[in-house]
Structure formats: C-alpha cells, structure tokens
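Annotators were shown the component list below and the corresponding predicted structure, then asked to write short factual statements about the assembly.
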Amino acid sequence: MMHVKLTAHTLVYYAFAITMLIFTVLLSHTAFFTTANLLNILMQTSPIVVMAIGLSFALSVGHIDLSIGAIVAICGLVAAMLLQSYGITIAVVVSLLLGGLIGALNGYLCERLGIPSLIVTLGMLGFLTGFSRQLSGLQSIPIIDPQFISLFGQGTVIGIPSQILWLAGLVFLAHTILNKLRFGRHLFAVGASKPAAHSMGLVVSRIRVCAMALSGGFAALAGLLYAGRMQSARYAIGESDLMALIAAVALGGCSLLGGRVNIIGVLLGVWLIGCINNGLILSGFSSNEQMMVKGIILIAAVIVTSKVNK
Amino acid sequence: MLSKLRHCEKACIKLFLGILVCLSCNHLAVANSSDGFTLTQQQEAKVQDAKLTAVMAWHGSSPWVNSVTLGAKEEFKRLGIEVLAVTEAHYDPAKQISDLETLAALTPDILLSLSIDSLSAKPSYLRLSKAGTQLVLLSNPIAGFIHGQDFAGLVGDNVDGMGRAAANLVAQAIDSQGKVGMIYHEADYHITNKRDEAFVDALEQYEDIHLMVKKGFVKKSQTAQLTAAMLIQHPDLKAIYVSWDAAAEGVIESLRIANRKDVKVISHDLGTNNLLDMALHGNMYGAVSDRPHQIGTLMARIGAGAATDVSTPLYTQVNYNSVTFENIAESWRLAFKTPLPHILKSVLEQSQEATGHGEDHDAR
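Structure shown to annotators:
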C-alpha cells in the first residue's frame, strides 16, 4: 500500500480530494457535478491559472509580482484597441510583447536599482492602473473580431473549449520549462540561494529579469483570455484577482520566499478555490457567508501547511 | 482613426439609449410608475402553481442592494417562488460573468440582475434567456436586447429627476447663491454618471450658484482627501455635492476635521451615519432617496409575470423624494420598508424635541 506523506507540496492534493468528497455528499442534489457546471469552473478559472503560472515564475526566483492584475488589464485593452484597426496577429503579438516588456522592466528595476520587487511592482500596479483608465476613457472596449473570440473565448476544437486547450497547453509549457529545461533549474537555483547560484557561474540578474518577463507574458495571455471570454476589454479586469492568486500559489505548495514552485499544485489550488466559490453559490450561501467560509478554508490550509512543515 | 471610430461608437450607444429612454417613457405612461406592474389574483394563482425558481446576480453589496434583495425575496415568497441563490460580484465584471455562468447551472426560471458592464455580460445573459430564464434588469440597459425576447423588463430610477432634485437641495441649502463643489464618481457607471450629469445641468439654472470645482473619485475612501484639498483651494465653498451616501461619509469626516460646520453636503441614497449627522443639524443637509425595497418587489413581480406568459412592461420607474431633517423617518420607511434604526430614532426624537418639530412631514 502506497503512503503519500502530507507536506506543503502535497497538501493541495489532499485538500482537493477532501473537498470533492465533501461536495459529493453535500452537493449531489445540486447541479455541481453536471458536465456543464464543471466545464464552467474550468473556463472561469483559466485566466486565473495562467496568471498564477506567471506569478510562479516570479516566485521561483524569489520575486513577487503585484502588478500582474494591471498587466492583464492593459494588455487586454491594447489587444482590443489594435484589433479594430490592425487585425488579430498584430493585436496578439503586440499585447504579448507589451506584457513581457513590462515584466522585464519590473525585473530590470529590481536588479539595477536594488529595490525589492514588492515595491517596484506595487508602483507599476499603480501606474498601469491609472494608465489603463486614461487609455480606455473608463469605457469598455468591445471586441467583435470572430477569430479572436473563437481563439481566446468561445471557440472549440473537436468539442473542447479553446480556453481549456490554452490552459492545458500553458500548464504543460510551464511544467516543462520548470522541470525539464536547464533554464528551469537555473530559476530554482537562483530562488534557493543567489550567492550559491552566482558561484555556480549563473548570471543571476539576467535569470531574474527573464523570470519577471515570463510573469508579464503570462499575465498578457491571461488578459487575452479574459478579453476573449468577455468579448470586450475593461480597465478593471484582473484587479481583484491578486488575493486569489496568492492564496492559490500558497495552497499549491509554492514558497512565497522563492526556490519552490509546483505548477500542478498551483493548478489544483486555483481549481480548489474555483470549486469552493461555485459550490458555495450553488448551495445558496449568501455573499457574506461565502467570504467567511473561504477565509476559514484559507486559514485552515495555512495551519495544516505550517504543522506539516514542522 | 481609432478615436473617430470610438467617437462614432459612443454616439451610436448614446442614440440607442436615447431611443430606449423615449420608448421607456411611452411605456411608463401605460405602466404607471411606482406600483407600475401588478398581477391579478388569477395570475398570482398561476404563478403559485408553476413552482418557479429564481436567482439574483447583483453588482455589489450595500444596504441599498440588501433592501432590493429583501423586497424581491418577500415578493417571491408571497408568490410561492423559491430563491435558489443570490450572488454579488464586488463590482468586478469578470466575477459577474462567472456568477451568471454558475447560476445558469441551476436552470432558474427568473433572474434579477444589475449588470456592471453590459457589454461583457451580454453573452452570459443571452445564454440564460435562450435557455428559458426570464431576465429582469435593474437600472442598466443592455444594448441590442429585445424586450419580451431577451429580457422581461427593466426597473430603474428616475436618474435625471434625482439629479435635478439634488441641485434643488443645494439651492435650498445655500439660499440659491454661493460657490459649490462637486465630488463625482469617476467611473463608467450608468446610474451615477447620469445622476451627476443631471445635477450639473440643473444647477446651471441658478444664476447665482457657481460650480467652482469638480473632483472625481474612484474609491469612496478617497473623498475625505479630495474634500480637504478642495477646501484649501476654495475655502469659500458653501456646499458640496457627492455622488452617493457612502462616499459622502468621507466628505463629512473631512469637514469635521477642518471644523467647517458651515459647508452643507448634499448626496443621494440613505445611510444611517449621514442621517445621524442630518438629524443633529451637522454638515449633511439633504439627500435624494429612491425606493430600493420597491425596486426588488417590482422586479420579482415582473419576473413572475413573464415566467407565466403575462405581458410585462419594458420599463418601470420608481419614485424618489428629497430628504431633509424634517422627513428622515418617513423617507427611511418609504425606501427600506423597515423600522428606523434605534440609534437614529432616538437621536431624531431628541433633536426634534430641541428644535420643536413634533412629527415627520410627508416625504415628497
């Protein structure tokens, strides 16, 4: 019989399994386990998973990126505006490049000026939020390009929603980068100990800037997924996702201090939060009750994590 | 090129809204205003037999939203309709879409909702209405939606009238002369934008009132700082208009710190803190209040009617009234259909005894 030890790394697997078991008992009479509802959960959480993957890259080298939500908004807006005049290719490429560049700028400022990423990305969050509001004139930018909507929003390939395909592809890509490529090992080495990584001959600054650029790039992709799903872009998109992201990566077994990232854990962490949100709504909990239950679950998860780490 | 396109798009949206308002006014004449939609006994019996279910997807939470929900729940209960779930999106359009998708899994017969961003929420609403759910909207119309096909009806405030009433309260507070400041909601939000615009337009008719300064806020926590800055730049202001009650709390806080009891505050909606200040003859001079409980009741009734094939009005408008010291208690009852909070009641009684006002006057 196989025993899996409960650690911070495996906590999310147990939490996910236990939550599903509880839901099987409590929500079997509701629509929770219908295919349509489970697909809903997957699609609703797709942009958040992509953002969480981006954050994982930043965390892997010991940075944090608080500007992710604002990058989501600005990249979605830029894509929506460019779509009207230049078509899907230019809109998507420029949007992704913009996200990557903003992330790289965050990283550069941290490395060059020696400012903590918390401060740099907090400043970038403020700047980008104001810039998005200015750029959009506080209006939603509609998206009517059928190709874009199909690719990032409502489309399907052999019956599988495009958002889920994006999700699967990006999770695979991130997992491969972090676990199979040399670059991934470099990220973990830098996150675990900068001096040790430096003595190994790694260019620590460049690796950290690359990690932040990846964080920005994934945030831009999340912006495109949001824009496709909502068929419009808005300055406030992604603004309220930051707390859910941090909760998801913590639940997923990532170290907020760097050096430890688990992409599958992050994926399950986001899904766990999405399932809890969905289950509580279907159970008829009021908004206030939902917030209380989510808070209790988060505290319980952190307690268990800290206990099993001792 | 891009700006021209956006300009054209805005013009089209404004044209559509204009047409909608005109259509709405025509229906209003037929549908009356406050109790604008009623069901006959036979129709109510049919609703009860139908064993309907309902959900609500709100934009955010506040005492105002709670009162709408309460009004709707009471009416649903009276009609034998089960409420399956109530969501609120924290003013996040993406969360509202997720909420709508989740609620769709419950296959409700009726959905009551206020859309945060009608553009992005439109596909989710359409999916529900195509699945047979009767959608009743609050305040914000959805461009391109056809009445009777995509939605059962729209219930809303007379936002222009409320803006005008606020301007009249300002004039009343400062004897129709002096300098005025405005702290407005700087976001794309139909109700507050229209109300603020109507206020500015109506204030222009007073020749001796000068709107000296306008400052926008994004979060209600910013209004205290904005007021402090406003007072430094324009110390001779006699009144400040604020977009809604909760945002006015920061303005009053700032005026108290600056010891400026002479500056009067006028706002929209009712909240206990500001009404206490009004009862104590503080800075809060007046507010314009609508009828959230009645909105909920009407929305529930329209949804029930539509779900049982009763013809429902395109647009139903609820009344509003100006609130000053004299009619606080009556206005509260009209708005929320609940007793006055104990603390407000006792302060009001003490204040009325001190000033010689024995009882409330009519709210209008």
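Statements collected:
1. The first helix of chain A runs from residue 11 to 26.
2. The domain at 11-21+31-309 of chain A is CATH 1.10.3470 (ABC transporter involved in vitamin B12 uptake, BtuC).
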